[in-house]
Amino acid sequence: MEHPILFISVILQALGLPVPHTLVGDTLLAKLVSPHLTYTWLVMAFLIIMPKLTLGKLELVPNGRQNFWEVCVGGLEGYMTEQMGPQRAAMMFPMIATFAFYILVANLMGLMPGFMSPTSNLNITLGMTLIVWVTHHILGLKYHGIKYINHFTGPMVALIPLMLPIEIISNLARILSLSIRLFGNIMAKETLLAILFMLYGAFFGPLPILCLGVLVSVVQTMVFVLLSMLYCQGAMEHAH
Amino acid sequence: MFGDRKEWMKLMSVFGTIGIHMCASVFIGLGIGYYLDHKVFKDKTSPWLTLIFLAFGIVAGFKNLYQISRRKDL
């Protein structure tokens, strides 16, 4: 999908860099300046610079700007503690919160003209999903050792040849479903916005879809975070 | 009210994954079977492993549905 105007790509093209017009470029330099990667760096820069600018020094009695970040981080941590218990929530919090903020900012950024969502590329969502998937298996092995295989063998010994492939397929399907859900929703939003903008953008045509886009962005962030929490928690629990 | 809404959101996100997870299970099963048939065993077992693993994938999708319907904590 060719986007109308992407300002980082325009700037980089003016600097003489080979910005690819397809999703991924051919050479290493073209890959490094492809739009999804540059906008990922923009999200990273936003998430690093913006708290630095607004937070400054932490105070005991928070002012308005600190209140905002305390509500964001504290709300997320409270929700995780409710779901997983305080100790596990403290262990999982850095990874899950990183995913939450990154996906939320990346999704919402695509609603502005001149920007695009990096999460509308399957490579990026697949990368995040693989991190979650590998992490939940590592957690399972750490908590149960070799007994982790009990999660895959089902309740009865006689049914192991039947249950093992089923459970493995069901587990591998998590990669596909988690990555394709996020990618599909965000790419549909981006494509629909681009088409509506080109068709009747002068008459505020994309406005209803922009409203829906906010909802989709927030809901998909929540779904991704909640499912990665549930997967990690399921790996740490005992097999039923 | 707020607690209700959180619970509702959790239920929505869990049950919203049923459809795509079922679809993904079927395709993963089909993919494994196709790979085994055509790449590992060089067409000697075709089409049997594809069909068997497709059946495994479909059963995995329904098993996930059954497990979600039996969960007590949701």
Explain the overall architecture.
The complex is a heterodimer of chains A (240) and B (74). Chain A has one domain (7-236). With 240 residues, chain A is mostly helical. In chain A, 74% of the residues lie in helices and 0% in strands. In chain A, helix 3 packs across helix 5 and helix 4 (64-84) packs across helix 5 (86-109). In chain B, 81% of the residues lie in helices and 0% in strands. In chain B, helix 2 (18-40) runs antiparallel to helix 3 (48-70).
How many β strands of chain B by DSSP? 0
Q: How is the biggest beta sheet of chain A arranged? A: none
Q: Report the mean per-residue pLDDT of chain A as an integer.
A: 86
Largest interface: A-B, 19 and 24 residues
Give the low-pLDDT segments of chain B. none
Binned strand content of chain B: under 5%
Mean pLDDT of chain B: 85
- First-last Cα distance of chain A: 46 Å
**Helical content class of chain A:** over 70%
DSSP strand content of chain A = under 5%
Task: Specify the oligomeric state.
Answer: heterodimer
Give the biggest sheet of chain B. none
Can you tell me the overall shape of chain B? elongated
